[in-house]
Amino acid sequence: STKGSDGLKGSLKNIVDILLFILGAIAVIMVVVGGLRYVLSGGDSNQITAAKNTILYAIVGVVVAILAYAIVHWVIDQF
Questions:
Q1: How far from the centroid of its chain's Cα atoms is residue 35's Cα?
Q2: What is the mean pLDDT, run by run of 10 residues, along the chain of 79 residues?
């Protein structure tokens, strides 16, 4: 491959890495927020459900980010 395409691959990987790092950081923050909401719910079932949903969606976001990272790196390495 040419040097230009290697530079493009590296740039794409760097951009994807930065975006997925930000997404992962936001997801971790949301897990913490969900945990705080759960602890501070005071036994209110509606607040407990909302807190559990926040945690669940944040975990799903982390899994999606990890899968996206793996897929993007695999696709870039194929070219």
A1: 17
A2: 67 86 89 93 91 93 87 85
DSSP assignment letter at 15: H
**Burial status of residue 58 (CB atoms within 10 A of its CB: 0-12, 13-18, 19 or more):** buried
Whether this model's pTM surpasses 0.85:
no
C-alpha–C-alpha distance, residues 14 and 19, integer Å: 9
Q: Which two tokens stand for residue 39?
A: 């602890």
76-79 long-range contacts, CB within 8 A, separation 24+: 76/9, 76/12, 76/13, 76/16, 79/5, 79/9
